[in-house]
Specification:
The complex is a heterodimer. Helix content of chain A is 30%, strand content 26%. By secondary structure, chain A is α+β, with helices and mostly antiparallel strands. In chain A, helix 3 packs across helix 7, helix 7 runs antiparallel to helix 8 and helix 8 packs across helix 9. Chain A is globular and about 80 Å long. The termini of chain A are far apart. By secondary structure, chain B is an all-alpha fold. The radius of gyration of chain B is 34 Å and the shape is elongated. Chain B is built from 39 helices and no strands. The chains are: A alpha+beta, B mainly alpha. Chains A and B meet through strand 2, strand 4, helix 2, helix 4 and helix 5 of A and helix 2, helix 4, helix 7, helix 9 and helix 12 of B. Chain B: Belongs to the adaptor complexes large subunit family. Chain B: Keywords: Membrane, Protein transport, Transport. Chain B: One of its GO terms (molecular function) is clathrin binding. Chain B: Adaptins are components of the adaptor complexes which link clathrin to receptors in coated vesicles. Clathrin-associated protein complexes are believed to interact with the cytoplasmic tails of membrane proteins, leading to their selection and concentration.
C-alpha cells in the first residue's frame, strides 16, 4: 500500500543543502503528513547517511521512503507507513518512469539507475535507430516536460494506482484510455519527424514502426482535426514503403474521449492486447540481437570476459488474437533442466504441422574454413538470466519447452538472456586484433602495425566495423605538424586528435578473413625513454593483478633460458589453442627484442616478480596522473549471426477466427560497441617494441 | 500551450471570474477545461484557498463531458472534507445519479470519488450504493467497488461488518473475472492487515487456492502479485496440498516483473514449511529459486539491492532451499556502494571450504580497491573467514600478510584488528604474521587498531624482536590516547614487565605513573593502582619472580568463536513471510518497524514441519560448526560474550583483558551476563534478538 507518490526535481543531490522541487504528487492514503514535511525529512535524512547507507529505501520515523532516480535529476518517490511490498513498489516506480517516457518523449527509455548502473534492458531500439540518436535531440523527460504535462501525468497516476494498490502500468492499454494531448515544444516535434524519416532510409522494417509511432503522435497532437489529410508528402511516401499500414483502434475511435477498451482489456484474460486489431498483411518480425561484451588481454592471450547480452525483439503486425509458438534450439529454454524423459515426451507430442520449420544453419558450419563458432546442435548453451515478457505462457515453457505467446501489438521484447562464455575457452573471438607498436628511436617515429582476422562463417560479413587504436599521448607525444602516414589493406585510417586514437574504418569484411593489415607511422616530438615505456608496460602487468600472467611469464623465461638464451618467436606468440599463427615475420624482430629485454631483466634481478614490484613502486611515486585508456575498442555488427548459437527452430502463428496466413521474418544479429557493450583488447607487454 | 504557465497559485476569485466568463460563450467546455486545469495545478500546489470554489465546481458536473467531470471529481476528492456539510452535500445528488449512469467509467469514477471522501454524508451515500455496485454487471465497476469496501472499512469498520459487506466481498472472490478476483484479494488483504477493531483473517481452502492459481496466467502482472500474496492465507493440510500449489506456481519464477518473481519465491518458501524435506521432494527447487533470484541481479540497482537483502534472509533461514554460486555475487566495478556492501555480506555468508580460494582471491581484490570503506570491509571479511573456516585460515593469513606488506595505512589499521582475532582463535599458529604487522607499527594510528597491536605485543612479546621499540613508540602518546587504548596499554605493559622484567621495568613505571597521576579517567587510574599494588606486593615475596601476578595477569584468553548465536526462529519465520516487503530490507522484526501491522506466523496444520535447528544457523560446513560447539561447551560454566565482534566499540582486546582480572579463566561469567538471561522478559528478549539479527545482517558493521 503506497500512501503517496511524488515526482521531484532534485538537482545536485550530493550537495548538503540541495533544494527538492516538488513537480507533482498524488496522495492515495491520508496516513502520511503534508508533503513539505515528508520532503524535508527525506532530504535531511538522505544527507546524513553515509554513502553505503544511501540505499533506495529509507525509514524515517515509521515512514518508509522508496525512491528511484531517473535522468535529469528526476526522482520518483513513494512513501508508505505500512509494511508495503517493496519489490512491487520499486518495479512500479520504474514502470511509471518508463511510462512517462513513452508518453512524453520521443527518446528511448534510458535506464533509471541511481548511480549510473549500466542496465541491459533498455527498450527495443533497432540498431539503425541508434546511429541517428547521436544527431537528434530528443524531447527529454526533464523538469519542464513533467510540469507541462501535469494533468496527463495526474491522470496516469490515477489509472495506474487506485487506493494505493497498483492497477496497471501497461502502456499499450493506457494509451487507449488516456489520450490527453502531450505538450511538446514545436522544436521537439520537428525532431521527431526528422527522426522517423531518416531512420526509414536505413532499414525498411525498422522504420515502419517509427513511422507508425510518428503518425500516432502526430494525430494525437492534432487531436480531433482528423489529421489524415494533413500528412506531409514525405510521410505518405514512407507509409507506402512499409506496405503495411495498420488500421488501429486509434483511427476508428479517434473522436471518443474514452473508448471502453480499457474496460475490456483490463478485465480480459489477455490484457496487453486490445481486441479488434486488423492489418491487411499479417507480419511478424523476430530479431534475435546479441550484444557482445568481450575483453581480451593481449599480454597473456587470455579472454578475460566474453559475455553475451541477448534479446529477442519482436515486431508484431498481426490481426486479431494470434497465438504464436516459437521454439529454440536450446533444450531447456527456461534455463532449468527438467527430467529428460519429460522433454522427449513433449517432443513427440508437438504438432509441427502448418508451422514454419526454420532451417538451422548448423550444417553449414563445416563448410566454413574455421569451425570456430561451435555447432550447437544438442549442445547446451549456458544461458542465464533469461527473462520473459509477460505475454509468454510460462507453464508451457516448462512442460513443452515451447515459447507460446499472444503478442502485444507492435514492438516489444519477447525475452532477454545472458550467456557467459567464459568457460568456453574453445570459442575464439569473432574478430581478433594483433597490434604492434614499434618505436624507432633514431628517427623518432612510432610505427603501429595492426593485423585483423575474422573468425566466423565465410558467408557472413560485418557491417560498420570500426577499430579504435589508442596512442597514449603521455607516452608518445605526437608531432601533429608532420604528416601522418597511413596505409591499410582494407578500409580507411584516420587519426582523431581529441581522443588520441587511430580510427580504422573497415565497414564490411567477410568471415574467415585472415591477416588484414594496417600500418601507421607517427612522428614523435620527443623520444620516450625506454624507462617510461617499461613503466607503462609494467603498470599494466601490475594492474591486472594477474598472477597467472606473472607465472606464465616466468615459465616462458625459463623455457627461453633452457633454449640457451635464444628465444624463438613461437614461444610467446599465440601459445594458446589458436589455430593459426599469424604474421610470424611481422613479429619476429619485435619478439627477439622483447625476449632480450626480458632476459636482461631476468638476469639483472633474480625474480621477475620482485622487479615488477620495485618498478611498480617507483612508478607510483613518479607518475600516476590521469590514466589513458589503453584499450583497443572494436565495434561492429554481424547480421545473420547469433554468437551464442541460439536459433529459432520453429515458428507458428495461429489465429482461430480469421485463419489468415502470416509472414514471419526472422533475423539474427550480433553486435557490439553500441549501448552498453564493449569489445576490447587490452595491450600487453608484447605489443611494444623498441628498435 | 504550455501547461507550465498554469502552474502558479491562483486566487479563487480569479478562477471564479474566468468560469463566469466561460459560461458567457455558447460553448463553454474548452474554456472550462482550461480553468479546471488551473484548478488541478493548484491542488498540486496545495492551495487551500480553492475551497471557496466548491459550489461552482459542483455545478460544472452538469456539463456532459468526461474530462471536465474527471477534474471535478479530483477536486471534490481533495476538498470535500474541508467544507461544511451543506456545501459539500450539494454534490451528492450528482453522485447519486452518476453511480447508476449507463457509462461504466462514470460509475467507477464516481464510486471512487465517493468512497475517497471521509465526510459523513459521503460515507452514508457510499454505504447505500455499494451493494448495487458490488453486483454491477461490469467487472471494472465491481473491481472499484471492492476497493470502495476497503475504504469504507477504514472509515467505519463496525458498520461495514454489520452490513455484511465483507461477506459480500468474499463472494466476489468467486467472481468469474480474474481481475475482479485479484483486486478483491488486494482489498481484502488490506482489511485483514488492519489491527484496529476486530481482527479478521482470510482463509482459503484448497479448491479455491487452485482456482486462484489458475487465474495466474490470465491476469496482469500486478494482479498476479495479489493472488500470490493471498496464497499465504491458504493453509495446506497435507503435504500434497502444498506440493500441488508449488508445482503450479513455479513457472512464475521466470516472470518478467521482478515483483512477481519475488512474491512467488515468498509463496514457495511459505508452502515449503508444510513439506517434509522440500529439497528432497523437489530436487530442482533449490536450483530454480537460486537461479531466479540471481537473474534479478541483472536489473536496476534498487531491485538488485532488494533481492540481495532477501538473499541474506534466505541464507539465514532457508539455506537448504536455495542454491547459489558465490561467484555470482562478486561485485562489479560499477555497482553502487550500497550494493557492493550487501554483496560483501553475502559473499561472507556463502563462503565455505570449497570456494574459499575463489572467495579469498576476490576479497583480496576488493581490499586493494580505491574505495576505502569497501577495502576495509573486505579485509574484515577475510579475517572473519579465517575464524570461520579453520581449514582455510592459513590462506587467509597469507592474503592478509601480503596486503600488509604494501604498507598502505588503511589496510594496516584493519589488518591489525583482524590479525588480533586470528591470533586469538589459533594461538601460536600464525606467529609469522606478527613481525609483518609490526614492521609498520608507526603507521598504526586508529584507536581500535592500536589496541589490537598493543594487545598483540603484550601477548607475544617473547617472539617479537624489536618489541621494545615498538611498544615504546606506541605508549609514547599514552596521555593523549582514548581510554580504551590507555587500558590496553596498561595491561600490555604489565605483561611485558612480567615476561621481560629487565626491559619492561622502566616502561612500566613510566606508564603506571602516567596512569595514576596524570590521567583523569577513574578507570584508568584504578587499573593503574591495581597493577601497581599487585606487582609491588608480589615483588616482596622471595620465591619465584612475581608468581602470583603472573598467574593473574598472564593467562589464556577465552576461545573466540564465530557469531553463531541463533536468531529467534519466530522472527525469522515472520520475516520469511514478508519476503520482498520493506521489513525484509530492514531485516528487523516487523512489529518493531510497523507497529500497526498484524503479526504473521505459520498457522498450525498437520503438515506443518518443525523448524530444524540447523536451519537457524547460517554457519558453514557442519564439521566446522561442531568444532565451534565443542569449544563452546568445553569452557564449562559460561564463556562471557567473547564472540568475534564486528563493530568495535565494546569489542576489543580490552574486553578480553578485562577477563584477565578474574582469578581464573574458568570463572569469568560476569553478573551482567546472567542477569541478562534471567531478567529478560519475552518482549525484551525479542528486542535483543532483533539486535542480534540486525547485527548479523550487517555483520561487517557499517561504520567508517
Amino acid at each position: 500500500m503506497i500512501s503517496a507518490l511524488y515526482i521531484l526535481h532534485r538537482p545536485d543531490s550530493s550537495l548538503p543543502f540541495s533544494q527538492n522541487d516538488l513537480l507533482l504528487y498524488r496522495g492515495y492514503h491520508n496516513d502520511v503528513p503534508n508533503f513539505d514535511i515528508i520532503l524535508g525529512a527525506f532530504c535531511k535524512t538522505y544527507h546524513k547517511k553515509l554513502p553505503e547507507e544511501k540505499s533506495p529505501f529509507l525509514l524515517i520515523e515509521g515512514i518508509s521512503y522508496i525512491y528511484v532516480t531517473g535522468k535529469y535529476d528526476i526522482v520518483l518517490l513513494a512513501v508508505s507507513r505500512q509494511n508495503a511490498n517493496a519489490m512491487s513498489t520499486v518495479v512500479f516506480l520504474n514502470n511509471i518512469y518508463k511510462l512517462l517516457h513513452l508518453y512524453l518523449t520521443t527518446a528511448k527509455v534510458p535506464v533509471a539507475g541511481s548511480t549510473g548502473q549500466t542496465g541491459r534492458h533498455t527498450t527495443t531500439t533497432a540498431p539503425s535507430h541508434d546511429k541517428i540518436k547521436g544527431q537528434v535531440t530528443h524531447t527529454a523527460l526533464d523538469r519542464d516536460t513533467i510540469s507541462d504535462n501535469a494533468t496527463l501525468i495526474h491522470e496516469l497516476l490515477d489509472e495506474c494506482m487506485d487506493f494505493g494498490v497498483i492497477q496497471t502500468t501497461d502502456y499499450n492499454i493506457l494509451k487507449e484510455y488516456i489520450k490527453v494531448a502531450v505538450n511538446r515544444s514545436v522544436h521537439a516535434e520537428n525532431d521527431n519527424q526528422y527522426d522517423s524519416s531518416s531512420s526509414s532510409d536505413s532499414s525498411g522494417e525498422d522504420s515502419s514502426h517509427n513511422i507508425n509511432d510518428a503518425i500516432k503522435m502526430y494525430m494525437n497532437k492534432k487531436g480531433k482535426k482528423k489529421g489524415d489529410k494533413k500528412k506531409s508528402k514525405a510521410e505518405l511516401k514512407n507509409i507506402k514503403s512499409t506496405h503495411n499500414q495498420p488500421v488501429s483502434m486509434h483511427d476508428i475511435e479517434e473522436k471518443r474521449y474514452i473508448n471502453s477498451s480499457i474496460l475490456r482489456t483490463s478485465s480480459s484474460a489477455i490484457n496487453w492486447r486490445p481486441k479488434g486489431i486488423f492489418y491487411a498483411k499479417n507480419e511478424i518480425y523476430i530479431d534475435l540481437i546479441e550484444n557482445c561484451e568481450f575483453y581480451f588481454d593481449l599480454g597473456s592471450e587470455v579472454i578475460k570476459r566474453n559475455e553475451i547480452f541477448g534479446r529477442c525483439d519482436v515486431k508484431c503486425y498481426l490481426s486479431g488474437m494470434p497465438a504464436c509458438k516459437v521454439e529454440f534450439n536450446e533444450k531447456h529454454i527456461s534455463g532449468i533442466e527438467v527430467d529428460d524423459d519429460e522433454t522427449e515426451h513433449s517432443d513427440k507430442n508437438k504438432d509441427t504441422e502448418g508451422g514454419n520449420i526454420l532451417p538451422t544453419s548448423d550444417d553449414e558450419d563445416d563448410e566454413g574454413s574455421t569451425s570456430t563458432i561451435g555447432t550447437t546442435k544438442g549442445k547446451h548453451i549456458p544461458i542465464r538470466n533469461i527473462q520473459f515478457h509477460q505475454c509468454i505462457d510460462l507453464s508451457s515453457l516448462y512442460k513443452e519447452n515451447l515459447v507460446k505467446f499472444t503478442p502485444p501489438d507492435d514492438k516489444f521484447t519477447l525475452l532477454t538472456y545472458h550467456v557467459e562464455q567464459q568457460k568456453q575457452i574453445r570459442k575464439l573471438p569473432l574478430i581478433k586484433i594483433t597490434p604492434v607498436y614499434k618505436l624507432n628511436q633514431k628517427s623518432k617515429t612510432l610505427q603501429i602495425m595492426c593485423t585483423l582476422s575474422t573468425q566466423f562463417k565465410k558467408r557472413l560479413k560485418t557491417q560498420n566495423l570500426l577499430v579504435k587504436i589508442p596512442v597514449d599521448p603521455t607516452l608518445f607525444p605526437i608531432d601533429n605538424k608532420e604528416n601522418l602516414k597511413f596505409k591499410a589493406q582494407l578500409g580507411e585510417v584516420t587519426f582523431k586528435v581529441d581522443s588520441s586514437q587511430l580510427y580504422w574504418q573497415i565497414g564490411e569484411i567477410k568471415g574467415g578473413t585472415k591477416d588484414v593489415k594496417m600500418m601507421a607511422e607517427l612522428q614523435l616530438i620527443t623520444n620516450p625513454s625506454i624507462n617510461t615505456v617499461e613503466n607503462v608496460i609494467n603498470r599494466k602487468v601490475k594492474d591486472e593483478k594477474d598472477h597467472s600472467k606473472a607465472r606464465e611469464l616466468r615459465t616462458n623465461l625459463e623455457e627461453e633460458d633452457a633454449n640457451g638464451g635464444r628465444p624463438t618467436a613461437e614461444h610467446d606468440d599465440f601459445d594458446h589453442d589458436h589455430e593459426h599463427h599469424s604474421d610470424d615475420d611481422n613479429d619476429n624482430d619485435n619478439e627477439t627484442d622483447r625476449g632480450i629485454s626480458e632476459l636482461d631483466s631476468y638476469y639483472g634481478v633474480n625474480k621477475t616478480a620482485n622487479r615488477v614490484e620495485s618498478v611498480q613502486s617507483k612508478f607510483i611515486s613518479s607518475k600516476l596522473d590521469e590514466p589513458f585508456d589503453n584499450d583497443i575498442y572494436v565495434s561492429f555488427v554481424i547480421p545473420m549471426l547469433s554468437y551464442s548459437g541460439l536459433k529459432l527452430t520453429f515458428l507458428k502463428v495461429e489465429e482461430d477466427q480469421m485463419k489468415y496466413t502470416s509472414f514471419p521474418w526472422v533475423r539474427y544479429s550480433t553486435e557490439t560497441g553500441m549501448q552498453n557493450s564493449t569489445y576490447r583488447f587490452r595491450l600487453g607487454v608484447n605489443c611494444f617494441s623498441l628498435c | 500551450m504550455s501547461e507550465g504557465k498554469l502552474f502558479s497559485k491562483t486566487k479563487a476569485s480569479e478562477l471564479k471570474a474566468e468560469l463566469d466568463q466561460a459560461f458567457r460563450k455558447s460553448k463553454p467546455q474548452p474554456r472550462v477545461k482550461i480553468v479546471l486545469k488551473k484548478v488541478v495545478a493548484n491542488i498540486i500546489l496545495n492551495n487551500g484557498e480553492l475551497v471557496a470554489l466548491f459550489p461552482d465546481i459542483v455545478q460544472l458536473m452538469k456539463l456532459d463531458d468526461m474530462e471536465i467531470r474527471k477534474s471535478c471529481f479530483h477536486y471534490i476528492a481533495n476538498y470535500a472534507h474541508l467544507v461544511n456539510h451543506n456545501v459539500s452535500g450539494e454534490a451528492l445528488p450528482y453522485f447519486q445519479r452518476f453511480v447508476v449512469d449507463q457509462n461504466p467509467v462514470l460509475r467507477t469514477l464516481s464510486l471512487r470519488t465517493l468512497s475517497a471522501v471521509s465526510s459523513k454524508q459521503y460515507v452514508e451515500l457510499t454505504f447505500n450504493v455499494i451493494e448495487n455496485s458490488l453486483q454491477d454487471q461490469n467487472p471494472y465497476v465491481r473491481k472499484s467497488a471492492a476497493y470502495a469496501v476497503s475504504k469504507l472499512y477504514q472509515h467505519d469498520p463496525d458498520r461495514t461488518i454489520a452490513l455484511q459487506l465483507i461477506d459480500k466481498l468474499n463472494e466476489l472472490l468467486y467472481d468469474a473475472d480474474p481481475v475482479v478476483v485479484s483486486n478483491t484479494l488486494a482489498a481484502l488483504s488490506f482489511i485483514t492487515e488492519q489491527q484496529q477493531g476486530k481482527v479478521l483473517t482470510l482463509t482459503i481452502d484448497k479448491n479455491h487456492a487452485m482456482t486462484l492459481v489458475g487465474f495466474l496466467a490470465k491476469t496482469n502482472e500486478w494482479s498476479q502479485i495479489y493472488i500470490l500474496n493471498s496464497l499465504l492465507s491458504f493453509i495446506p493440510q497435507t503435504q500434497t496440498d502444498a506440493l500441488d500449489i508449488i508445482d503450479r506456481i513455479i513457472p512464475s519464477l521466470q516472470h518478467e516483473n521482478s515483483a512477481v518473481v519475488l512474491d512467488t519465491i515468498k509463496c514457495i518458501i511459505y508452502l515449503s514449511n508444510y513439506v517434509k524435506a522440500p529439497e528432497l521432494v523437489i530436487p530442482t527447487l533449490s536450483k530454480r529459486l537460486g537461479s531466479s533470484l540471481v537473474s534479478l541481479l541483472s536489473k536496476k540497482p534498487e531491485i538488485q539491492f532488494l533481492v540481495l537483502r532477501n538473499v541474506i534472509l534466505l541464507l539465514l533461514g532457508k539455506r537448504g532451499l536455495c542454491q547459489f554460486d558465490v561467484e555470482l555475487f562478486f561485485c562489479k566495478y560499477d555497482d553502487p556502494i550500497f550494493i557492493k556492501d550487501t554483496k560483501l555480506e553475502i559473499i561472507y555468508l556463502l563462503a565455505n571450504e570449497k570456494n574459499a580460494n575463489v572467495v579469498l582471491r576476490e576479497l583480496e581484490e576488493y581490499a586493494t580497491e580505491v574505495d576505502v570503506p569497501m577495502a576495509r570491509k573486505a579485509i574484515r571479511a577475510i579475517g572473519n573467514l579465517a575464524v570461520k573456516l579453520p581449514s582455510s585460515s592459513i590462506h587467509c593469513v597469507e592474503v592478509i600478510t601480503d596486503l600488509i606488506s604494501n604498507g598502505i595505512t588503511y589496510i594496516l589499521q584493519e589488518s591489525a584488528i583482524v590479525i588480533k582475532n586470528i591470533l586469538r582463535k589459533y594461538p601460536g599458529k600464525f606467529n609469522f604474521a606478527i613481525p609483518e604487522l609490526l614492521n609498520h607499527y608507526k603507521l598504526i594510528d586508529e584507536p581500535d587498531s592500536k589496541i589490537a597491536v598493543i594487545w598483540i605485543i603484550g601477548q607475544y612479546c617473547e617472539v617479537i624482536d624489536k618489541c621494545n621499540t615498538a611498544l615504546e613508540f606506541l605508549i609514547s602518546t599514552f596521555k593523549d590516547e582514548p581510554t580504551e587504548v590507555q587500558l590496553a596499554s596498561l595491561t600490555t605493559v604489565a605483561k611485558y614487565y612480567l615476561k621481560v622484567p629487565e626491559k619492561g621495568e622502566q616502561m612500566m613505571l613510566k606508564v603506571l605513573q602516567w596512569a595514576t597521576e596524570e590521567v583523569d579517567n577513574p578507570d584508568v587510574r584504578d587499573r593503574g593502582f591495581f597493577y601497581w599494588r599487585l606487582l609491588s606486593s608480589n615483588a616482596s615475596a622471595a620465591t619465584d619472580f612475581q608468581v602470583n601476578a603472573k598467574r593473574i595477569i598472564l593467562n589464556n584468553d577465552p576461545f573466540i568463536v564465530t557469531d553463531n548465536d541463533n536468531i529467534d526462529p519466530a522472527i525469522l519465520e515472520e520475516l520469511e513471510l514478508n519476503i520482498g516487503s520493506l521489513a525484509s530490507i530492514y531485516l528487523k522484526p516487523v512489529q518493531l518497524v510497523f507497529r500497526l501491522t498484524k503479526r504473521k506466523q505459520l498457522t498450525k496444520s498437520p503438515a506443518l514441519q518443525p523448524r530444524t535447528i540447523h536451519e537457524n544457523r547460517y554457519g558453514n560446513g557442519d564439521s566446522n560448526e561442531n568444532i565451534d560447539d565443542i569449544e563452546y561447551a568445553s569452557s564449562p560454566p559460561k564463556v562471557p560474550p567473547s564472540r568475534l565482534k564486528y563493530s568495535r566499540d565494546d569489542r576489543s582486546p580490552s574486553s578480553s583483558s578485562r577477563s584477565k582480572f578474574n582469578i581464573s579463566q574458568h570463572r569469568p561469567s560476569s553478573t551482567s551476563d546472567t542477569s541478562y538471561d534471567n531478567e529478560s522478559t519475552e518482549e525484551s528478549a525479542k528486542e535483543s534478538f532483533a539486535k542480534k539479527l540486525s547485527r548479523k545482517a550487517s555483520f561487517l558493521g557499517r561504520k567508517k
